[in-house]
Amino acid sequence: MISENFIYFGVFLTEIANISYFIDTIKGKIKPNRVSFFLWALAPLIAFFSQIQQGVGLQSLLTFIVGFNCTIIFFATFVNKKSYWKLTKFDFICGFLSIIGLILWLVTKIGNVAIIFSILADGIACLPTIRKSYLDPKSENIWPYVTTLITAVITLLSIKIWSFANSSFSIYLIIVNLMIIPLIAFDFRKLLKKV
Alpha carbon of 7 to those of 2, 68, 115, 186: distances in Å? Predict the structure, then answer.
């Protein structure tokens, strides 16, 4: 276990990377999927408020910062003409399922249920970006995913008494970032063609 103060360091790293992502979005160097970023903004913020309601301390900062950063990127996509909001059937299904999960949380009003549905909604919202990262890895910036992974690990290492509320969103972020990072770092389509 490490000091909770390391979470601030992780958040600092995440913010540096997200500034880079924001600038790349504004300049049109990358093409964020608006469907994903809209839902990535909404789901973590709902989980954050649920964590606060359940007394989660500093570990909830990671959940908040993920939602906050995605909100900023979502709005930045409207400046970037390369960003897209084209709803393919795949995007529509992912967005619809994410919103259903969030509505179900609003109905239950139970903290851990809110976190579960936020994780499910966020995970479903990742599918278009995972697909895009596989098909067009150059359309993404790897650093926000790497720093979010680092911050999630730091957050888990800072937990003194484990609970679903204070650990689940960080565990989810580790899993999803471990899926996205290799897709951006290695062009698997080119690698598979060589095999």
Answer: 10, 16, 20, 29
Q: What single letter denotes the amino acid at residue 79? A: V
Cβ-contact 154, 7 below 8 angstroms: yes
pTM of the model: 0.84
Which pair of structure tokens corresponds to residue 158?
């800072």
169 closest CA partner among 38, 9, 54, 16: 54
Identify any residues that bridge with 33 across adjacent strands, giving them in sequence order. Answer: 84
Give dist(CA 177, CA 150) in Å, integer.
Answer: 10
Separation in Å, CA 184 to CA 59, 118, 151: 27, 24, 19
Describe the crossing of helices 34-53 and 164-185 by its angle, rounded to 10 degrees. Answer: 160
Contact 108, 114 (CB under 8 A): yes
- Taking only the tens place, the pLDDT of each residue in 41-69 is 888 888 888 889 889 999 999 999 999 99
Among 13, 38, 32, 66, CA closest to 140: 32
3-state secondary structure the chain: CCCCCHHHHHHHHHHHHHHHHHHHHHHCCCCCEHHHHHHHHHHHHHHHHHHHHCCCCCCHHHHHHHHHHHHHHHHHCCCCCCCECCCCHHHHHHHHHHHHHHHHHHHHCCHHHHHHHHHHHHHHHHHHHHHHHHHCHHHCCCHHHHHHHHHHHHHHHCCCCCCHHHHHHHHHHHHHHHHHHHHHHCCHHHHHHHC
